[in-house]
Amino acid sequence: MKEYSLFIGCTIPVRAMNYELSARKVLDFLKIPYRDVEEFTCCGYPLESVDELSSLTASAKNLALAEKYGTNVMTLCSACTGTLTKAKKILDENDEILEEVNEQLKVLDLKYERKAEVHHIIRVIMAEIGLDKLKEIVKRPLTGIRIAPHYGCHYSKPTSIFGDLDDPEYPTSIKRVVEALGGTYVEYENLMQCCGGAVMGVDEKLALKLAGKKLEHISDAGADAITLVCPFCYIMYETNQRRIERDLEKKFGIPVAFLTQLIGLALGIDSVDLGFKINRVRPKDLLAKIESA
Amino acid sequence: MTQTDVDSGEKSTITSDQLDPNFKYEVAKELGGKAVKFCYQCGTCAAGCPIRAIHAEFNPRTIVRMVLLGMRDELLKSEEIWHCSNCYTCYERCPQDVRPTDIIMALRQIATREGLAHSSFRQQVDLLGDMGRLYEITELEEGKRERLHLPQLRAKTDDIGKIIEKTELKKKIKGEKGGK
């Protein structure tokens, strides 16, 4: 198995340490080789809205570093996944743009050589371990746990960049993982709706309104938990859940778990080691159900 | 936006001398704007847009139409081009592969060159220039990470600062007009 460079991005190490913690624990457990790269910086996502060349160069910088260590990139955040994958596609298909970007990269003495690939951790697990194998090694199946997925947008869209990794309207990768873990996958109204995270800086009210709509739909479907794969979506549904409850004068109290946290639980890893103490919406009932089974 | 004025019945006539007939070509030159001229205004983008559903002022179809009409000034100064959540729903569904998400990105980039970047993005560029990351890693985070046995991180680097200096974004983002 080729080694991966773990790309944790800006948000996870500060605002979603439970994602990072559970990802590392699960990778160690599954013996997927990865390294940390101290020189990694922002993926380039926020720069895309202001300057294409700067964004592509920031992405290429990180890709070049992964190449320097002879690795592929493993991302946790969907925005990083989308941005790096898009940059790679543009740079791999356009000689002129690659040249221009590498010209900028000279200030850091780096060069992108079109070698590094970009893979989201869930896809790494699916490809390197496989769902049949995962199912086999589950120690604590999530039997009877009703799990509502939130795929997020940059995990599989646009398909012009991601290809057919997942269907843009009806994705199934999280479904397949949840079912391999023994859980019950819960569908709900408007399942593919965006979390609104990308508008948070521009119009907080609007972003929270969007997130609130989804929490209502998930609540109506009667889920025990939401699972997701991106720190921005997590901040919208988890970190901001109480605030949304106040705004809507409703109580949701739906725990939100990163998919890596659920994988870890099913593999028998202790919930504290998976960072569940960091979750603000207390997952006590959820954990009790899983741990007592 | 103008479309809203029309919807609400308020008069807002635009005369042709206020339009820039070359704007669509300007947008089409951007990486994300290539397909703008293919739009036949079917409205599939607006129908699926999650922002449009809760915020009537935002409408991807209107934005593309305004590009085609040449309403350059109005678009670049509008708050609405910053309201897209880039969820790619319209991008996936557009029968003409116009990629409205990318067109809106192109509009933001043109606006930035005119000194009209939204303040929230200006702040983000400043942070990235100073630290190379969006969130500061303070002693508090360092302590938390240590307790969780997570590796210590390099808190600051000027790598992104060097990149945006080289690409001249650092200069562009300041702008003379002050933006929003």
Structural commentary:
The complex is a heterodimer of chains A (293) and B (180). Chain A is built from 15 helices and eight strands. Chain A is α/β, with parallel strands linked by helices and 293 residues long. A four-stranded parallel sheet of chain A has the order 2-1-3-4. Chain A has a four-stranded parallel sheet with strand order 6-5-7-8, sandwiched between helices. In chain A, helix 2 packs across helix 14. Helices cover 52% and strands 0% of the residues of chain B. In chain B, helix 5 (60-69) crosses helix 8 (100-113). Chain B starts with a helix and ends in a 6-residue tail after the last helix. At the A-B interface, helix 1, helix 2, helix 3, helix 4 and helix 11 of A face helix 4, helix 7, helix 8, helix 9 and helix 10 of B.
List its salient traits.
heterodimer, A: 293 residues, alpha/beta, 49% helix, globular, B: 180 residues
Q: What is the global morphology of chain A?
A: globular
Sequence stretches where pLDDT stays below 50 over 5 or more residues of chain A:
none
Query: What is the oligomeric state here?
Result: heterodimer
- Tell me the strand percentage band of chain A: 5-15%
Largest sheet of chain B: none
Can you write the helix and strand succession of chain A as a string?
EHHEHHEHHEHHEHHEHEHHEHH
Mean pLDDT over the residues of chain B: 91
Structural class of chain B: mainly alpha
Secondary-structure element series of chain B: HHHHHHHHHHHH
- Shape of chain B from CA axes? elongated
Helix content of chain A: 40-55%
